[in-house]
User: Which sequence fits this backbone?
């Protein structure tokens, strides 16, 4: 129980820092003289480098049992570099974001590996731990909006650094490795080949990519898009808080929903909600609609993330847990981050909010089709296995 408490506190302050800083990073960069296209290129390039490092982080964690060290570095390095976002030089901003992303990209797979192992040992659920990140992000998003409206966006790195330091202190108290995950016994290349040789798993990765690249548009460009249609920074913070807070009840009931309909069907359900939330913004491109539609965030992102992390955990062998989560995050956050930041940055810059929303709606629909294939294929496999046992 003590470990669960520590993990929940860790996720809480990680969410507070990220929820306060990340949504307003683009505003900070634009305030320094960059346009949305340059912001997209900067972030996409940094994410490309992160993709190359993410499986390496997973391998280090699985092979050498250094999960805690990797987790500490993933928070401490980006926080320490945040002060340099005040620079007006593109090369400095590029270097800072690239290095920060290399380290921060491993937060999710390593923390999730901890959370899944701890939840199983304690008879709890991953969602009941992960919801603290959403609660923290909701509060952080609101505080960020209030902070920017009262102070300058150029100093938002200060509260971000404070929350990150608390997160690091909590991470130091965690065990060296995630209990229950044995040391990797097979080679890294062999494990990767095993994962990527599964066609259903590849379809799952493809669906995750198409769905989450739209979340990159939300996370990176929401404040800019909201302000471009007449919204204020203060109300943008309220919208971000509303989006994140809906994850809390969603993640609480996620395991029950999975128990009733299965992980694969829940992934499909969440993808269809993505299509709905973008379709609403296509039809009603107004600040009020952009705020109201955030009530669907928990049913889309919240449901999808819990189902996806548990799907990867069940698909991946016990000694490849961190590596499996890293491969998933390479696609879910890495590749989708590159495409989402580049594509939606250009669309927002050249065609405005409406063009970006249409693109996100179509991408979500394509992702839902791939996840429909995953759901049907998994159901056929289960039926075949059941028939084999009865025979």
Assistant:
């Amino acid at each position: 129980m003590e470990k669960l408490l520590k993990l929940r506190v860790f996720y809480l302050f990680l969410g507070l820092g990220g929820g306060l800083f990340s949504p307003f990073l683009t505003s900070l960069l634009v305030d320094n003289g960059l346009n949305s296209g340059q912001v997209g290129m900067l972030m996409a390039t940094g994410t490309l480098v992160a993709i190359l490092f993410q499986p390496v982080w997973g391998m280090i964690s699985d092979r050498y049992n250094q999960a805690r060290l990797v987790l500490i570095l993933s928070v401490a390095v980006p926080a320490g570099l945040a002060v340099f976002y005040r620079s007006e030089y593109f090369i400095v901003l590029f270097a800072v974001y690239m290095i920060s992303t290399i380290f921060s990209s491993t937060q999710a797979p390593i923390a999730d590996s901890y959370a899944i192992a701890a939840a199983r040992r304690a008879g709890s659920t991953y969602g009941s731990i992960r919801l603290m990140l959403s609660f923290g992000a909701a509060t952080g998003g609101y505080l960020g909006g209030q902070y920017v409206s009262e102070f300058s966006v150029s100093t938002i790195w200060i509260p971000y650094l404070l929350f990150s330091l608390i997160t690091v202190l909590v991470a130091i108290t965690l065990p060296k490795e995630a209990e229950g995950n044995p040391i990797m016994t097979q080679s890294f290349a062999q494990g990767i080949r095993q994962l990527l040789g599964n066609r259903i798993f590849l379809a799952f990765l493809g669906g995750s990519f198409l769905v989450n690249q739209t979340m990159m548009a939300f996370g990176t460009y929401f404040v800019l898009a909201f302000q471009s249609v007449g919204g204020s920074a203060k109300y943008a913070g309220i919208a971000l808080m509303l989006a994140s807070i809906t994850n809390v009840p969603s993640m609480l009931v996620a395991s029950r929903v999975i128990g009733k309909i299965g992980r694969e069907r829940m992934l499909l359900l969440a993808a269809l909600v993505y299509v709905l939330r973008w379709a609403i913004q296509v039809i009603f491109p107004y600040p009020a609609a952009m705020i109201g539609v955030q009530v669907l965030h928990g049913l889309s992102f919240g449901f999808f993330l819990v189902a996806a992390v548990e799907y990867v955990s069940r698909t991946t062998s016990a000694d490849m847990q961190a590596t499996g989560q890293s491969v998933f995050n390479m696609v879910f956050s890495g590749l989708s981050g590159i495409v989402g930041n580049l594509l939606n940055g250009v669309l927002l810059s050249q065609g405005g909010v409406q063009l970006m929303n249409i693109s996100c709606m179509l991408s979500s629909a394509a992702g839902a089709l791939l996840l429909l294939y995953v759901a049907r294929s998994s159901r056929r496999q289960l039926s075949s296995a059941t028939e084999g046992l009865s025979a």
User: Anything to note?
Assistant: The two ends are 44 Å apart (CA to CA). The chain has 16 helices and no strands. The CA atoms of residues 142 and 237 lie 4 Å apart.
